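Hey L., structure's done. Input below.
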Amino acid sequence: MNPPPHHPYHPRAWAEVDLAALRQNLDAARRHFGGDLMAVIKADAYGHGLARVASALDGRVRFLGVATLDEAAAVREAGVRGDIFLLGPSLAEERAEFVRLGVTPSISSVEEAAGFDRIGRTRGAPVRVHLMVDTGMGREGIPPAELADAWEKIQSLDGLDVEGIATHLPSADEDAAFTTGQLARFRETAASLGGPGRFRWIHASNSAGLLAHPGAGCTLARPGLLLYGVPPVSPPGGAESPLSPVMRLMARVTLVRTLPADHGVSYGRDFITSRETRVATVGIGYGDGYPRSLSGTGAEVFVRGRRLPVIGRVTMDQIMIDATTHPEVAPGDDVELFGPNIPVTEIARRAASIPWAILTGITRRVSRVHR
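Output:
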């Protein structure tokens, strides 16, 4: 697919974002979980474009999950009226603005709770918050040993409406036994504080938790990666994934040359041609977020219906591919770096990385084309 005509020129690199696939993946998550969903759209919606993704999901989920005040403000500036949830702790100077924007904060300390309580009492309306409990992540939330004392203090604050309780799963995609025990401890903790009769929202599961532990006993799940079409774990029972990739990273061939045998390609001359080689240069590099660590790993791209190997080191603005077996390749051709034909999970594996890092690492100079 060529870039759409509203561009004054054809960009050398762009990311196609399929909003219909995004909504289909949301429907797949809903069928699997059965409860309410929070769509995690932090980090520019995992690189897919925060404002457009938030608008596409507005009214289709119970919450939109963000990580920063800037993200919350951008969602509101996009005209989104749905509930926004703050996934991490807040700084004291941010709290009044979060409340003004109608963001529901997570609370990881008595100090945070007291800060929002003061705001709630000043404005004459309680601030809706969710209590975050640390059941094994070690990143945020109130530790179990401190929870009883903290809860006694927090529930006495009249400026708060503690409508939810939450935790986070650190190993849902790696350690099934630990995660099963963690979820059991979380359910016990929630029950000891009042359970569903006290909390409208009880949530723990990220994408991996939602897929691998559907019986978590929660009323809300927080899918992130799976919304963007990437399953963090294999579907149960070996079934084919019902998800569709939302992003397709594209670039264009800028130059095609024939190099003789024994000619170096790219920095360091790590790759030396073993025969006369037709080398195509593609206008994308690590400055666009295509990982330099893919150099020399056997990474491939998809062009004119065929996979072709990346050769030499990935440079800041360009990569080179061996097009000797595909003489039709020409300047201006579209090249898929990842998408339907080259899974982002494959790119992440070859780069010794993770799909989350690949998607969020696509830089701003790559145009996002939403359709």
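Residues 281 and 320 are 5 Å apart (CA to CA). The chain has two domains: 19-234, 247-370.

-- N.
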